[in-house]
Design goal:
The protein folds into two domains: about 170 residues, Aspartate Aminotransferase, domain 1 (Alpha-Beta Complex), CATH 3.90.1150; about 260 residues, Type I PLP-dependent aspartate aminotransferase-like (Major domain) (Aspartate Aminotransferase, domain 2). It is globular. β2 and β3 form a beta hairpin. Strands 4-12-11-10-7-5-6 form a seven-stranded mixed sheet, sandwiched between helices. Strands 1-2-3-15 form a four-stranded mixed sheet. The chain has about 450 residues and is an alpha/beta fold. The termini are far apart. The chain is built from 13 helices and 17 strands.
């Protein structure tokens, strides 16, 4: 019965992410998933190179996560979090506080990564209200970033390529500095923080916080930058009395080779956003953590309470999945898994730099990137990857993989070979010559 999936209904009535209802893109029906493989309704199996948008780090069908969710489903699948607490939420928050850096002592559980960013921005604004500095309402960030799809999150996405450019005055105007130029593994360029310092020196009285994706700018371009930049940014925030928000929704729980990307720079944030891999990708859940100082400031604000409360906050089913996922992370196998993935991708993607359509090759932890000379035809390349037995979803001018940590060497080789094969088919547009190619083989140290 698998092949009876109603694709016509899907095309006519179901809105997929970033698609048009008048010019539909091809979709592929999935029947089941196990380990690192997706099984399509026609029986074909695809090696998943995306971890379902970077979340399913333990693969599909993990018995511990499923068992935890089944048990919780029969006991208590959902209950409001207002005036009520329960064991899964308490256990999860204990684990998060133990895993993250010492100053982070307060946990706000929410629905998704975008909402975690919304919560972080609200926390920053309310903190300064509690400090009797209500004029500090703006957020400073860097260009080429991505922090989510909701309105406050959009406002701190890239000001030129971000979605908020099409929503005009409905989106809050924020402050932007140039993206970090110093690559991971390089000594910090002397002027890399100059613009950030300039903005803070003249506008710190109205800036509540700086928000940034540590080490890796994800959906804004899969760019890896120097830990020294983060270290300098932390010092600037302290010097000019603004909060530092780190968005680890994509990088948290081992993706870059450290448990959290801020560990590359040995810094601590005032507010931390987590999501995606928090539940191992089994159900939506995110968290925003903050320090005692931030929590006290919010509690001293005119409202006297933090002004946010999602209906599904602290959902017991999601918390139980997250507890199981973090138990798996805490066994520390991810360290050797991610290191092995990084080493293999470095070796197998190395020669992709010789492909004319490839501008750059980058590897950090369990992230492998081919940056192309020009934007790619996502629909065309998606079909080519499926024909090669892999699930890789390009975007803009990037062909990248962020596979589950449990991927086998054979499966990973299938992914890297497909990346190079598809890239080699892409012609250069017109007579435009590729920019001088460089290869960034990043080590996690």
């Amino acid at each position: 019965m698998r092949n009876l999936l109603d694709f016509d209904f899907d095309s006519a009535h179901i809105w997929h992410p970033y698609t048009s209802m008048t010019h539909s893109l091809p979709v592929f029906g999935v029947h089941s998933a196990k380990g690192c493989e997706l099984e399509l309704v026609d029986g074909r199996k695809l090696v998943d190179g995306t971890s379902s948008w970077w979340a399913c780090v333990h693969g599909y069908g993990h018995p511990e996560i499923i068992s935890a969710m089944e048990k919780q489903l029969h006991q208590l699948s959902h209950v409001m979090f207002g005036g009520i607490t329960h064991a899964p939420a308490i256990t999860l928050c204990k684990k998060l506080i133990a895993m993250t850096c010492e100053p982070l002592t307060k946990v706000f559980l929410c629905d998704s990564g975008s909402i975690a960013v919304e919560v972080a921005i609200k926390m920053a604004l309310q903190y300064w209200q509690g400090q009797e500095k209500p004029q500090k309402q703006r957020i400073l960030t860097v260009k080429k970033g991505y922090h989510g799809d909701t309105f406050a999150a959009m406002s701190v996405c890239d000001p030129e390529g971000g979605m908020h450019t099409m929503f005009g005055e409905a989106v809050t105007k924020q402050c932007f500095a140039d993206a970090p130029k110093t690559l991971f593994g390089e000594a910090l360029h002397p002027d890399d923080l100059a613009q950030m310092r300039g903005i803070l020196s003249t506008q710190h009285n109205e800036i509540a916080a700086v928000i940034i994706e540590p080490i890796m700018q994800g959906a804004g371009g899969m760019r890896f930058y120097s830990p020294e930049y983060l270290l300098g940014l932390r010092k600037l925030c302290d010097e000019f009395n603004v909060l530092l928000i780190l968005d680890e929704i994509a990088t948290g729980f081992g993706r870059t080779g450290k448990l959290f990307a801020y560990e590359h720079a040995d810094i601590t944030p005032d507010i931390l956003c987590l999501g995606k891999a928090l539940t191992g990708g089994y159900i939506s859940l995110a968290a925003t953590l903050c320090t005692d100082k931030v929590a006290q400031g919010i509690s001293q604000s005119p409202a006297g309470v933090f002004m946010h409360g999602p209906t599904f906050m602290g959902n017991p089913l999601a918390c139980s999945a997250a507890c199981a996922s973090l138990d798996i992370i805490n066994r520390n196998k991810w360290r050797s898994q991610v290191a092995a993935i990084e080493q293999q991708m470095r070796l197998e993607l190395r020669d992709a730099i010789a492909i004319p359509s490839v501008k750059d090759v980058r590897v950090l932890g369990a992230v492998g990137v081919l940056e192309m000379v020009a934007p790619v035809d996502t629909a065309l390349l998606q079909q080519q990857f499926v024909d090669l037995g892999v699930w890789v979803r390009p975007f803009a001018n990037l062909i990248y993989i962020m596979p589950p940590y449990i991927i086998t060497p054979m499966q990973l080789s299938q992914l890297t070979a497909a990346m190079k094969q598809v890239a080699a088919r892409i012609p250069l547009a017109g007579d435009i010559a590729p920019t001088q190619a460089t290869t960034s083989f990043i080590s996690h140290g």
